[in-house]
UniProtKB/TrEMBL annotation:
<feature type="active site">
    <location>
        <position position="164"/>
    </location>
</feature>
<feature type="domain" description="Alpha/beta hydrolase fold-3">
    <location>
        <begin position="86"/>
        <end position="294"/>
    </location>
</feature>
<comment type="similarity">
    <text>Belongs to the 'GDXG' lipolytic enzyme family.</text>
</comment>
<keyword id="KW-0378">Hydrolase</keyword>
<protein>
    <submittedName>
        <fullName>Lipase/esterase family protein</fullName>
    </submittedName>
</protein>
<dbReference type="InterPro" id="IPR050300">
    <property type="entry name" value="GDXG_lipolytic_enzyme"/>
</dbReference>
<dbReference type="InterPro" id="IPR029058">
    <property type="entry name" value="AB_hydrolase_fold"/>
</dbReference>
<dbReference type="InterPro" id="IPR013094">
    <property type="entry name" value="AB_hydrolase_3"/>
</dbReference>
<dbReference type="InterPro" id="IPR033140">
    <property type="entry name" value="Lipase_GDXG_put_SER_AS"/>
</dbReference>
<dbReference type="Pfam" id="PF07859">
    <property type="entry name" value="Abhydrolase_3"/>
</dbReference>
<dbReference type="GO" id="GO:0016787">
    <property type="term" value="F:hydrolase activity"/>
</dbReference>
<dbReference type="InterPro" id="IPR002168">
    <property type="entry name" value="Lipase_GDXG_HIS_AS"/>
</dbReference>
Length: 323
């Protein structure tokens, strides 16, 4: 299957811009420039996310005495209901991305389902290198366990979720909840992983085939990793969960990939690893899309169906758990 027509047109415009000296890839920019460019893409990719969402600002304390911002999203009309929670971590290679860049994703997840969505703004590299992002994720989960009830959140029914590097943080929490239960008070009921980073130590065929010209580029990935972590640390399971030596059985897992994505092969390998070791996995590949499609609701109509299908899967998990 070929690229989705609207997405192909969008990529052609990017290519034309580069030929004229504009639209440089993120790895050709400074960190500050890359962050600005990434934020601006949200205005193009998803300019009109659902409006009937109540958004509450939250401050979450971290283990080093600081606080990080977070946003809590819930469908208007369900403000006073106690709701299960999707704990969502934005993508961006640990270097770019923010609450604003992924506002549309969080609004759509809250709109299509009967979940509240809690999105923390974990600290980014290179100012904060590994393991700060992981620690911020853990601190957010433990805050949710202690303080969730004050915000009408059901911390007994939490789904960890994210896209790209954010999906890596989500699966790190899922692994931690089983492997090191004393580190984390929340016990996720499921995980949603959209085009996750699972192995930062090597390149696979999808890097060769789709590592340039398909939005996310392999050189950009390497640029992210160099800012985030030392080379000799990349095999740690919180950075490259595919390389974990003793993967436990994890909560039911929903993995959704893109064919035209350098991360496709490692995401597929991670799904296989989980299945082989006893985790229930739902794997879907979007055969006409690229990395970052969750943020493309404004240019690819089919993205709405991805959210709807994701929520249907979550409802099936709720049904199995009888809540």
């Amino acid at each position: 299957m070929s690229l989705h027509p609207e997405l192909e047109t969008f990529l052609e415009l990017i290519t034309l811009g580069r030929m004229s000296g504009q639209n440089k890839p993120l790895h050709a920019l400074s960190v500050e420039q890359a962050r600005v460019v990434f934020e601006q893409t949200s205005l193009v990719l998803d300019p009109d996310p659902p409006k009937s969402i109540t958004v509450t600002a939250v401050l979450i304390p971290t283990r080093d005495g600081k606080t990080i911002r977070a946003r809590l999203y819930r469908k208007t009309g369900k403000v006073s209901e106690k709701l299960p929670v999707i704990l969502y971590f934005h993508g961006g290679g640990y270097v770019v991305g923010s609450l604003d860049s992924h506002e549309g994703i969080c609004r759509r997840l809250a709109w299509y389902g009967d979940f509240a969505v809690l999105a923390p703004e974990y600290r980014l590299a290179p100012e904060y290198r590994w393991p700060v992002a992981v620690e911020d994720a853990l601190d957010t989960a433990n805050w949710l366990s202690k303080q969730g009830a004050a915000f009408d959140l059901d911390s007994a029914h939490v789904v960890v979720a994210g896209d790209s590097a954010g999906a890596t943080l989500a699966t790190t929490l899922a692994i931690t909840s089983v492997k090191h239960p004393d580190w984390m008070e929340v016990k996720p009921i499921a995980q949603l992983l959209f085009y996750p980073v699972t192995d930062t130590t090597r390149l696979r065929a999808s890097h060769r085939d789709y590592g340039k010209g398909y939005l996310l580029e392999s050189e950009t990935l390497e640029w992210f990793y160099q800012h985030y972590v030392e080379t000799d640390q990349r095999s740690h399971w919180t950075i490259s969960p595919l390389l974990i030596s003793d993967i436990p059985i994890l909560p039911p897992t929903y993995i959704r990939l893109a064919k035209f994505d350098p991360l496709h092969d490692e995401g597929s390998a991670y799904a296989q690893l989980l299945q082989t070791h006893g985790t229930c996995v739902q794997l879907t590949v979007e055969n006409a899309l690229t990395h970052d499609y969750l943020r493309m609701g404004g240019i690819v109509d089919e993205v709405d169906n991805i959210y709807k299908e994701t929520i249907l899967w979550l409802k099936s998990i709720q049904s199995q758990l009888n809540f």
